[in-house]
Model the fold of this input.
Amino acid sequence: MQSASDRHEYPAHWEADVVLRDGGTARIRPITVDDAERLVSFYEQVSDESKYYRFFAPYPRLSAKDVHRFTHHDFVDRVGLAATVGGEFIATVRYDRIGADGMAASAPADEAEVAFLVQDAHQGRGVASALLEHIAAVARERGIRRFAAEVLPANNKMIKVFTDAGYTQKRSFEDGVVRLEFDLEPTERSLAVQRAREQRAEAHSVGRLLAPGSVAVLGVGRAPGGVGRSVLGNLREAGFTGRLYAVNKAFPEDLEELDGVPAHRSVRDVAAPVDLAVVAVPAEYVPEAVAECGEHGVQGLVVLSAGYAESGPDGRERQRQLVRQARAYGMRIIGPNAFGVINTAPQVRLNASLAPEMPRAGRIGLFAQSGAIGIALLSRLHRRGGGVTGVTGVSTFVSSGNRADVSGNDVLQYWYDDPDTDVALMYLESIGNPRKFTRLARRTAAAKPLVVVQGAGSAPQGHAVRATRLPHATVSALVRQAGVIRVDTITELVDAGLLLARQPLPPGPRVAILGNSESLGLLTYDACLSEGLRPLPPSDLTTEASAEDFHAALTRALADETCDAVVVTAIPAIGERSPGDAELAQALRSAAAAAPAKPVLVVHVELGGLAAALSAAASTAPRAEGAARARAAAESAPAPQPAAVEAPEGAHLIPAYPAAERAVRALAEAVRYAQWRREAADPGKVPEYEDIDEKGAARLIDGLLARGQGLTLGAEETCELLGRYGIRTRRAIPAPTPDEAARAAGDLGYPVALKATAPHLRHRADLGGVRLDLADEEQLRRAYAELTELFGKPQELRPVVQAMAPRGVDTVVRAVIDPAAGAVLSFGLAGAASQLLGDMAHRLVPVTDRDATSLVRSIRTAPLLFGWRGSTPVDTPALEELLLRVSRLVDDHPEVVAVTLEPVVVAPHGVSVLGASVRLAPPPARDDLGPRTLPAY
Done:
């Protein structure tokens, strides 16, 4: 298949797997001379009408000359791509480069004619749109900037493919044919169209896995026990609403049913369609099972089988083959080594997992790469005591195992517009595509809360992740910038999720505290201060408080305009007026219902019954069983009947926490997220600066890169490039001898600074390698002698002389292009203390004016810029402008792969860049600007 072409080797990097509109997958690859039989077979399955639309005349069959033409390409001026499923063509596209006269041409001609043909059975699946994205990317790579297409007016589907793509285009009508011409440079609209299609396709692909109409479990044993038999039992117990099939090639031929489920020796024997196959056979038998599923038209697989990448190099290769095989049939995979999937929607009731009980339907979506963590999450939400005693229900659950295909990004696409999911909780051991994840997370977080526990950064065995050079803390900061509620533990994940699923977002950080324990109220007050909230003085109701007292106090607090949220603290009380758990829960809920715009949380101490009462309407357990467990767990006697504490449908349920710190931490995350939502509504803008010379900088960069593949610029080149963007650097003159230092100081004018620029001394004023405010030649020569005496010869020190800058705060500005995360702008104060504490803030490029403002204020040492302890505030607007100019430089010119400005002295008036370095290199590939593809395997 991958034969050499007429002029160029087979371009293997054009091969890609794509998700189509209906959620299935297809393989896109170049057409070669070995595809003649496939092409003829494909053409025979195309209707006469589609052939007429392609060739503008009846064209029943391809001639030998046609076949030769359509399979022989030079991969430069003539290119053909095919979309394949199961190795067979389902659609083709080709371009031919043409000149101004419309005849065949070669470079530098930059226009090409393009034409499609899609098999009728696959029309409407978005195949042509995907092929257009890929053929356009190929054309741009080969120097083609514009496509032309001639289409019959009646061919509305193909006209729509072109017009909906979002490219800048012209349309004309001549000789009964519609001629479309469009530029191939991606536009804001074309990228928006592409990403909207990506979202719909990937969401649909996950939806097919989570809401199948029929499920076959492969590897069901005849004896009780075993993974396959357990999953089949879980599906039955959950009340799956579709059709079930038990499959095992070892079944006797006369076996028709197992546990009331139709039994078959092979998926091929199932007479009806199968939407989802749960594979629970040993790894060596999986390829055969996948082939049977693919040939039967199964839409997706959940592979529970282990023995893949987690087991070593052989397993990694086995996993690659599994993904390639499944995608060849148009199927997506959850797993391998997965725990399974759950969908609690009443019209589905799918428990295709190893979880023995079906969680109760709710509004929280769960994703975990690890099966063990998935079990812990489900268990934590399920149980009524010990951990977070307030529980709520689950909408969908996915445990992806080795995450060979379906990833957290795919599930985010599904949750984004899933009406059954209000809050998304994710445990991510790694982030395989940070650039895409932050883009999807930002969009999702703008609509619903996304809470994430992120692993320590090293990818688990079997995870095909893109390498990032950014520190774990930097990636975490970028994730937070995208609106993600980033927490550290499973406990915090569930704590935040319960609050966000049950309560409205707080309008601000002001917190009222009330309860029947003064000490618990003070603990809560201190916790609020630690989390940066603004607590009001606690209101102590005393231990004699009744349910009516709690109701009245909560009503007053919620009506207070100086309060944005309320934390209720409650301890067990003894006395005639002390309320029972159900009575107190009802009092709190009725008061909260009267002011639904503010969140209410409860901190309780050993009140299992109260937690059960507060959360009775959202238990993950079946209703009767959950009530029984609550009664058994409650230590107070006797526990109320569920009907007495049932919350009205749609009512906000009050989450309860066993510790003040946990409740307040969850509230603080909700406050920060609400603030992000408000700010995201107006993200700011990227300013334009009239003095920026973008074209001049591009010419300079091209000339410098002509010297080699990557280089660090010299001082003069650095100053020239930065100057094109209005970034002025203070000149530093090398001083290899005392006399040359004196001449340099004379040129610059006193006072001056003398600095050692050797790598071990650079930017280390604390080591004594810098002498400032040298007022005359005598002081300069004395300082020169001191430096050489302390640190060695001038050639080792590399001393420079620089004019003194106005006094201010020393800062550092950096920008790097990471192959996985993209361009990142970082800011912090200069000096060892900031480096030791890792006190740097980060933003994704391009940075807006609002981003720059928040970036300056995000570091812990920011008060030093704003007049801390009576010091003079510095010129932060000038600093923000510098950050914006650096952002523009790396955004406009991706060849600028690293910029460091250190130190940048921010004075009361203006900024001074005293040191700068720039590195150039060919830019890393931007897959977010290219056509849609699944990760390569």
